[in-house]
Design goal:
The complex is a heterodimer of chains A (203) and B (157). With 203 residues, chain A is an alpha+beta fold. Chain A contains 6 helices and 8 strands, in the order αββαββααββαββα. In chain A, strands 1, 2, 3, 4, 5, 6, 7 and 8 form an 8-stranded antiparallel beta sheet that branches. Chain B contains 3 helices and 9 strands. The radius of gyration of chain B is 15 Å and the shape is globular. Classes of the chains: A alpha+beta (203), B alpha+beta (157). At the A-B interface, strand 3, strand 6 and helix 5 of A face strand 3 and helix 2 of B.
Chain lengths: 203, 157
Amino acid sequence: MDPLDVAQMDILKEIASVGAGNASRSLSQVLDRKIEVQVPNLRLSEVEKVADSIGKIDDVMTIVLLKIVGDISGSMLFFFKPDDAKKLANILRKQNNSQQNLTEEDKSALRELGNILSGSLLNAMANFLNITLLQSIPDIETDMLGAAVNTALSQLGESVTKVLVMETSFMVEEHEIRGKLHLLFDPKSTQLILSSVKNKFNL
Amino acid sequence: MADIVNVKVADCLIAEAPLILATQGIGSCVAVCLYDKERKIGGLAHVMLSKTYNVSENGIPDNEYRAMDTAIPAMIREMEKHHSNIAQLNAKLVGGAHMFRVVGGNDADIGTRNVKMAEEMLTKFGITVEAEEIGGNVGRSLEFDLETGIVRVTTKM
């Protein structure tokens, strides 16, 4: 895939912002807390370098994974430190469980949260682009970041060598819960996003 | 204690004792450890996929160590450059986990395919797989001691 020029990157960044903004509003509603969200960061990365660019390979993280299907294909990953994942689950389930590990009920609460966030994110992007975006059911794992990310990426890696990475981080104020959201698209999907923008604005 | 050298994803290192080759966060990827007992030369590759997807026009993959079908021949070629006797090599395989079972589904079990391709390629070169620590659903890390050929596998879950 050819490198993206500045104008294309700006367009993609704008779309990522629309999606992330919508998702953070949903998160704020679900948790009934203020959410601070950062401006998305975009990059084109070789498949095997994505994990390294997200964090330390052997750090244990809790990851909620969803696949994006429809007109474009990709993956969506939410990352939390295990402690933060537990705090989030406690807020969602209105409990104060000091046990460290996530219970099965915690996991389904976090999966559902992933569902809601990706739903609002993809809805915003799909409306903006006039395309259809659907999401798979969510999965959740707590393990080494490298193991999880490379596993999640391996399907994409079977047909492409580079992926577009949209990254944004958010924080639940007052609880100091931090999370990261990554959207990964293959080059074909990236081009489709760009051409949808051109169609919409007659560029 | 010998020095430890890390191998990244889709990469490979060949080295001699006294040194420890290591790699972290092996999920559905498969780490291939090749060892020449007599010369104490070892190779470690952290391979992501089973088959190479080729994008270049000249037929040469941009990275031979991304997929198993090209990684193992490349590894053996490099081992030979280090004057290792291919007939003496043995192999150990680590990884091939099936994480994210809900999203991945059955036919997306890339880990199993990676292991299968590794075994097939090694058989083709007449290399025996001495030990395996594969499958399941946890991520693994390993340390490969080139003094002894021992591969120590750890998990964090």
